[in-house]
Amino acid sequence: MTTESIRQTLLLWTVDYWSLDVMTEGTFKAHDIGLRAQKKILSRMATKNIVKTFIDGTTASLLDNVYKLCKLHTGNKKEAEKIIKNIIKIVIKIGVLNKNDQFNKEEQEAAELFKKKFLNTQLSVVSFYEVDFSFDLPYIQKSFAESHDALKAVVRRNLTDKSMNRIDEVFSFFSDANFLETAFKPDSPYKDVMGKIIADINKAMDSGDI
């Protein structure tokens, strides 16, 4: 058994299945136990290295470079790791919910809206980096806010307050005025890593990974 296999087995053992709130009108629901256990196990595995088990190629590279950007801006390794872990946990939980057909019609429609809003956000980020002096702070902040609201509409019914707070923390960090103005100014100290992020975004959009 490999080290990674042992780690995953231990994670299975550490989940307190009986503490999961899965009783509805006195009825035991095995499906709900399975769903919640999946989310809990995978979330515990959400580290920058473990993510490569679930996310390959360009997307993993993008997360690595976003981590570097967060670390540069905060000057704090733990804070940067927390941001990336939050992103990974959100992605994993949404993936588990989608795989188990947990989204109703309204949430599926909200998901399509989120895709459109977030695509616009990505395109804006790329454009502001590639075209000097095109950066528009109110525009990009509004774009992030619209993506944020659309995503919350997708997951609000299924995720806990703790998970919703993770979403808020991620969007709050990336829509911060000081962070954005520093990242997009022509002589930005983040210029090299931003270039790598933009290259990853372009590649991921071309391949349909994001």
Task: Give a verbal description of the structure.
The protein starts with a helix and ends with a helix. The chain is mostly helical and 210 residues long. The protein is globular and about 45 Å long. Strand 1 (23-24) and strand 2 (27-28) form a beta hairpin. The chain has 9 helices and 2 strands; from the N terminus they run H-E-E-H-H-H-H-H-H-H-H. Helix 3 runs antiparallel to helix 4 and helix 6 runs antiparallel to helix 7. It folds into 2 domains: 1-45, no CATH class; 56-207, de novo design (two linked rop proteins) (Up-down Bundle), CATH 1.20.1440. The longest helix is centred in the middle third of the chain and has 26 residues, at 105-130. It has a two-stranded antiparallel sheet.
Secondary structure layout:
Elements (H helix, E strand, L loop, with lengths): L2 H12 L8 E2 L2 E2 L1 H15 L12 H18 L2 H23 L5 H26 L6 H19 L5 H14 L2 H8 L6 H17 L3
Helix pairs in contact: 2-4, 3-4, 3-9, 4-7, 5-6, 5-9, 6-7
